Protein 1
Amino acid sequence: MSSSPICCVGVALMSSLTTREAQQLGRNDADQLAYATAAQRAFVTHNRADFEALG
């Protein structure tokens, strides 16, 4: 069985960044959201209720 590279046309690559990697530990919710917005990143959280109030 031979292996061949997989080619994806028109697919955007994604990267992730943790709060620690972004040096954002200890920042408040508004600062976290502002950082993600300025960096044009999606924001993933389990703490949805607090962030809904910021929107």
Protein 2
Amino acid sequence: MKSMSRRAFGKLALGLGTSVLIGGVELRFLPHALAADTAIGGEEPVPTDRVVPIDDAPHAVAPTAVNTPAIAGTSAWGARAATEPVQVINSKPTGIVVHNTQSGNSTDYSLGHAYELARSIQYSHIYERGWIDTGQQFTISRGGYILEGRHRSLEALSSGTTHCVGAHTHNYNTTHLGIECEGSYGSITPPNALYNQLVALCAYMCEKYGISTSEIKGHRDFNATDCPGDALYAMLPQLRRDVQAALDGGPAQTWPLLREGDWNRRVTAAEYLLRHRGYSVKVDGLFDAQTTSATQAFQSANGLTADGVIGAATFTKLITTVRKGDNNNAVRAIQTLLQITADGIFGSGTEASVKQLQQSKGLTVDGIVGPNTWQAAFNLPL
């Protein structure tokens, strides 16, 4: 789904580009493919006998097994009043629809940017689309902030029994929640900050409403649109697995997702780890056909889905503990992520860099690279 005309958004989105995990709330933006996608998500009339009267009193929240993500409500980001009463119905939503804004991939990760973005989306939806309020219930920014989109969405979600009707997926607004992910994901995947919050928000929604993870889908599954982009759409199976892991009591996965076409130091580190595991692969930072083939072979050998994409499940099998005194390709992998000389020798200098990372991320400062330290290193900004 998109929320602004190309002309209007262009004035706002100059200089936008990438992201980082900041910690507990969310948001997003919008450019060229906007018109086609947004036009499909019109308001859904709801029978008046199912509308819940507005109640400004606090709403009790039942205890949950998953962590409750921090969400900035409409009052926090300075939302305008809806032009008509927002409809909240006495039934639970049965599914979640993932969208992308198809906008510039912002490099402004601040809370202020997130609030400005939320206001711009609402303005566009009301004054350019003619809707009563923001179309989607929630938005996630590339900077890792979650924001309530449409008024009363957070109220309904917190109750776990009612649904705030949005305007994001034609013919499915009375039964599905919409999450907008800031950015364009036709050929690149979302940043880790956004993805981690998407997992957290989906897990919370699924638990509150009893939604099956199989009902987490993309906009294109319902309407004629490219949304949420080829790359993000391809991540939905992994998203469903990560959300299920969170619901089962495990931590939400926070590993990056590496696939063919990526070219960065995370890929270089993954290639070193594949070599450490005995697979023949060129270490050049480019996730090409050879890297895909080696990844598939490793996945098959370890009982994983052999899709050639390195995500949470593959990372947890691929990493290995390294410490001072080791000399191997796994050491080269952590050295690459820490941006120090990748000579494969785990000496005092490498140990010091590892301890510095551990201290900065609130981990046990022991200089040993175990699962949590690997995870933190792979999530370092590029």
Protein 3
Amino acid sequence: MTGGRRSSPAGDRPPVGCDRLSRGENLYNHGITPSTVRSALSSIHDVARAAGVSVATVSRSFTSPDAVAEATRARVLAVAQELRYAPNRAARGLITGRTGNVGLIVPDLGNPYFHGVLQGAQARARLADYAVFVADGQESAAEEEALIDAMRKQVDGIVLGSSRLAPVRLAALDHSPTVVLVNRRVAGRPSVVVDSADGMRQAVSHLAQLGHRRCAYVSGPRRSWSDRQRRRGLRAAAAAHEIEVVALGPVPPQFESGLRIAEAVVRSEATAVLAYNDLVAVGILRRLAELRIAVPEELSVIGFDDIPLAAMVRPALTTVALPTLRAGEAAVEILLDGLSAAGPRRPAARTLPATLIRRATTAAPRAT
């Protein structure tokens, strides 16, 4: 044969349209057979037809599984697997008018607390085939508001972690896109909070049982809603146990803040100190070691958050554990539920428990 292409047996001929899809190439050269071509072309409509449900039900089975009956979702997923169908974010956006993205804005990406929130948010978003855009608000209300405006047209909803915005600004935010708060509670806004007040009560009760009667509290940022809740729990528990509280701070929620405030803690003559978070507590531990003040023999220390570092330092830090993974998951669940709702609904509000983790930095005060 000269010139032209070698003809193929009829049984080996690519299906109609394959040469067009491959821009003239023979798809068999790439291991693609007629069955895989058909599978690649399976659409959401094919899945809906085969499963005997609506296109909307197929979409919700992937994006908002909690909104679909378990048996129905199982049938849809089985059909989708058989047809080798996978949701296409771009195609889904053309149908639904949605981006397939959610935003997560936190005040400080350097704070390990928010790593857990991010992991939980990503895990839940991934189940719904959503991507997560992450931004750092730099502990600034103005920066946070600018990020919300920048993300508005790129995401279907935003999770705000420990927002530094004033309540009136949060209440005034547009409801498009949906905004879900973590560690904040504002009327009219869906939220996920941890019961920090109860966590503080557990910590104070623990110190009271050990015999402490004078404790210092190093407070966090002035705009921190979580700090206000901790102080509320502290006041109630201190009154109940007749413990005198020395207030120190506010300080940024960082390791360096603990280094700087430690000497003020020593001067307060408190026998125990409760820090706003674990980073501050670890900074206090470091400076106390430099001052040769024994922990917990001379001073007990309690943190908040239970970041991984809390168990790694020596002595290991007694702290109040906050379920950060679950908080991130719950926030995205609420966001996706809101997107799948047929009409307006009452804003969801979830409260997660805090748990005291007793380690090696608390003990009975030294007798005087």
Protein 4
Amino acid sequence: MDDDYRAGLERNLRSLFVLHLGSGMMLSIAVIVPFLQSNGLGLREILLLQSIFATAIIVLEIPTGYFSDRIGRVPMAIAGSVAGFLAFVVYALSESFWGFACAEVLLAIGFSCYSGTLEALTYDSLLELGREKEFRKINGRQMLMHFGAESAGAVLAGFLALISLRTPFWANTLPFGIACIASLSLIEPKRHKIDHHNHWKAVWDICTHTLVRSKALRSIVLLHACIASMTLMLFWSTQPFQQQIGLPLVYFGMTHAIFVAAGALASGFAHTLEKRIDDRLILLGIALTVVACFLALGTIPALWALVFFLLTRTAWGILTPTTNDLVNRMTDSSVRSTVLSVKGMAMRIIFACSAPFFGAFSDLHGINAALLFAGIIGGAVLTIVFLSMRSVWAEIPR
């Protein structure tokens, strides 16, 4: 292997850490609910914005993943960084629902360009270096960097919000600006590319293989989609729950930082679990933890119940690198980014369909009742998913 090429691949790994840091330092996310409420939005409208974000990602996720496989990982990484930067400029300037909706669409473009691309670029770089077995460890550290940045940013956001609730959104343009610069240093690893002139047919073939023909791969994608959509729903319930129990706004950033730090540490050490526990049992444990947290939060409207948000973020921190690694091991480099995008799209479809109903239910009956109801429904769905996995349980990599 050429020395310059090897050096470029090693630089990829360092630059990808910077991209994860830049995209993770979401200073605004710790105070986004109070910010949107200060602009006249209720929880129904706030979750409708997230449904718009999720719908945009559903539309874009697979095409951007396919373009990543077809055109290259690096152009999509650059596009994602630029779109994220522009999204926060629009967010900081907006004062109405439709302005925020435009920002969410730009943010969706950014994250859909990143989704699958960064993981595939990491795996392909490691594969070229002969270090593909390190993927779960490296991806876990990337998630540690991502959530560690989000945790640090959340603490800062709590204080920036005392100046103005809009200040964290302006501050968020800085880390995405750094990500734009870092993305320009990436190089494209050598890999197999799709040799297909009918692009829509190629995308259809990949989707049907992932969701229909490969039962084992389908089970991982659906399981991840169900659990991840529940954790995302719980994430958007954190600030309304804190408002209900009377937690002062200045502590919102601190609690968010603690929750995210728990997820970051879990991601960083997720690779150590595979040495001790079967991956399939890890997934079962994650599902049970998330459902239990929903049910507990639905029945305990108290300050100490915030610990269940921490447990959920810990479970999610383990879920992401575990399922990413399983999908990477079950797919070829020529379609890897697209398959990872299908995985992300499945989660967004479930969230986009359920979020507006959850928000409306919460506005009518309160956040606790909404969490309890969602926990019961989610537990029933996950039970069905696990029961359907029995026939392919042995095919899932351990």
